[in-house]
Design brief:
mainly beta; 8% helix
Length: 105
């Protein structure tokens, strides 16, 4: 079983890759920041399985919760609405902490 890099409550950003092959991460969620809300264990990599490979080593799978308003700008949804997407660890990176812009003198 692969060691999990993230834990529940960690802020993560989905990598904004645009590969020209089969992937399991929806395009609409790439580049977005969310919070780990569940850990599902480790599974064979479905992106390798799609090409008849063995999918090893296994990859941790997480439930990542996003604010609806961070994903889509929809005036019909409440600000408290969320979206949960299951995402494999290879698509996740720690979210950068936002720092105030430095003033140049």
């Amino acid at each position: 079983m692969a060691a999990q890099r993230f834990k529940k409550g960690d802020r993560v950003r989905v990598r904004a890759l645009r590969p020209k092959r089969h992937v399991r991460t929806p395009a609409y969620i790439r580049g977005k920041t969310g919070t780990i809300s569940a850990t599902h264990g480790s599974f064979r990599n479905p992106e390798q399985l799609a090409y008849a490979k063995d999918g090893l080593p296994t990859v941790p799978l997480y439930g990542v919760t996003f604010k609806w308003s961070d994903v889509w700008k929809s005036p019909r949804r409440a600000n408290s609405d969320t979206l949960v997407v299951d995402i494999y660890e290879s698509w996740l990176q720690p979210a950068e902490r936002t720092r105030p812009a430095r003033r140049h003198r």
